[in-house]
Design brief:
Two copies of one chain form a homodimer. By secondary structure, the first copy, chain A, is α+β, with helices and mostly antiparallel strands. Chain A has a single domain (12-102), classed as Winged helix-like DNA-binding domain superfamily/Winged helix DNA-binding domain (Arc Repressor Mutant, subunit A). Helices cover 54% and strands 13% of the residues of chain A. Chain A has six helices and three strands; from the N terminus they run H-H-E-H-H-E-E-H-H. Chain A has helices at 11-20, 25-32, 39-46, 51-63, 85-88, 91-103, and strands at residues 37-38, 67-72, 78-83. Chain A has a three-stranded antiparallel β-sheet with strand order 1-3-2. In chain A, strand 2 and strand 3 (78-83) form a beta hairpin. The longest helix of chain A is centred in the middle third of the chain and has 13 residues, at 51-63. Chain A binds a DNA duplex through helix 4.
Chain lengths: 104, 104
DNA sequence: GTAGCAACTACAACTGTTGTAGCGCACGGG
DNA sequence: CCCGTGCGCTACAACAGTTGTAGTTGCTAC
């Protein structure tokens, strides 16, 4: 009972993990790390992602306060997604992921 | 081509992301960070996790070389899961996740 | 007018996840 | 011997998430 290993995973860690534990979420964040990104730029960056899934994930990340959706009034009008200030705080996590993935 | 944002997410990043993008994967890693953990310790740490999902995730992480399964010949015999050397390399990522989750 | 692009939405098929139940093995007590 | 308990799962049907393909809307350019 009082063994540390049984201690519940803290609520805030669960919430953050819950965001990443969805299909393409991490890759979307990676693709965003260089600046504002468009819907079909995501499609190219992620390879074959079903548009419905991409749209759903973008909405989720927006509602979570991590991505910001902006309509650019140009011709043709386009939509850009960029990391919020909160989203930028994920950079260390992404950097750690890259270091992990490169070692193996 | 030519725009950096369209550059595909590198294959190794996708593979690492693919591991984390599954239900409870991150929480399982978090729960493992203090040492060998048993099946029902995970159940307590994660709250209400369906045993089928937990079992599936443990097998996946084992096959990915991140967790190691060891049967301890005691009474009653028990099974312990611990991070491999490879799995320990995820610690910076988990630390970054914790820092992220604590700020907001 | 017809062809193209951008950013999606619609929908049915498929895969993953959930809750609940139960199994096999080893004790330990009565 | 039989019953109950703890452990580490497995079985299965209902449900939620994901997939591929197709189509829509609103524009502009040829």
């Amino acid at each position: 009972m009082r063994c540390r290993r049984c201690a519940p995973v803290p609520e805030e860690v669960r919430r953050a993990a819950g965001l990443l534990e969805r299909r393409f979420a991490v890759s979307i964040l990676w693709a965003s790390h260089e600046g504002a990104t468009r819907f079909n730029e995501f499609q190219q960056a992620l390879g074959s992602v079903p548009p419905a899934t991409l749209a759903a994930r973008l909405v989720e990340l927006e509602h979570a306060g991590i991505l910001e959706r902006r309509v650019v009034d140009a011709r043709p009008p386009r939509v850009e997604y960029s990391l919020t200030e909160r989203g930028l705080q994920l950079q260390p996590l992404l950097a750690a992921l890259v270091r992990f993935s490169q070692y193996g």
